[in-house]
């Protein structure tokens, strides 16, 4: 059991060396993109919520 755990950890580290990590510039760009899209979706859903809430208040 311990032997297989050690092998798993060693193989995991070997696989991590093969990963192509994004540059600092790419990571910053992707982060800004995700935050921007998230804010746009939140604003859209907030707008829909406001519209539907207003419609329901006028009906009742």
Task: Briefly summarize what is shown.
It is built from two helices and no strands.
Give an overview of the whole structure:
The protein is mostly helical and 60 residues long. The protein has a domain at 21-60. Helices cover 87% and strands 0% of the residues. The chain contains 2 helices and no strands. The chain has helices at 2-17, 24-59. The radius of gyration is 24 Å and the shape is elongated. The termini are far apart. The relative contact order is 0.06. The mean pLDDT is 96.
Task: Jot down its keywords.
2 helices, single chain, 60 residues, elongated, mainly alpha
Distance between the termini: 66 Å
Report the C-alpha radius of gyration, rounded.
24 Å
Q: Mind describing the biggest β-sheet?
A: none
Low-confidence residue ranges: none
* Secondary structure category: mainly alpha
């Amino acid at each position: 059991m311990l032997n297989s755990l050690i092998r798993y950890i060693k193989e995991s580290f070997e696989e991590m060396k093969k990963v192509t990590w994004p540059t600092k510039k790419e990571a910053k760009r992707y982060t800004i993109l995700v935050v921007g899209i998230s804010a746009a979706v939140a604003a859209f859903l907030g707008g829909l919520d406001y519209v539907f809430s207003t419609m329901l208040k006028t009906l009742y």
